[in-house]
């Protein structure tokens, strides 16, 4: 079996707020249905669903590889109006990372890998 793509489905506690949050991070949104939106940035995609399960959301971790962690940090600190939390850039053995919890409790690890 050969795989050419994997797309995660992210639950949304407040669907419109989560849609706005991911658009503010720089993702493009495409309407799929009343309960599903497709987001993309470059060749990377994920679905946002109008479905919420607290245990699922709070245990969901996505690693998002970024080219420039400082650019990502500037975007994050300018976000307003969202129920989110984040930690500043941290050096890990694999590179630099920002831990960002989205509006539904999902954890995004924005990572700039070591070259």
Automatic annotation (TrEMBL):
GO terms for molecular function: lyase activity. InterPro entries: Glyas_Bleomycin-R_OHBP_Dase. It comes from the Bacteria. SUPFAM superfamilies: Glyoxalase/Bleomycin resistance protein/Dihydroxybiphenyl dioxygenase (SSF54593). Keywords: Lyase. This is Lactoylglutathione lyase.
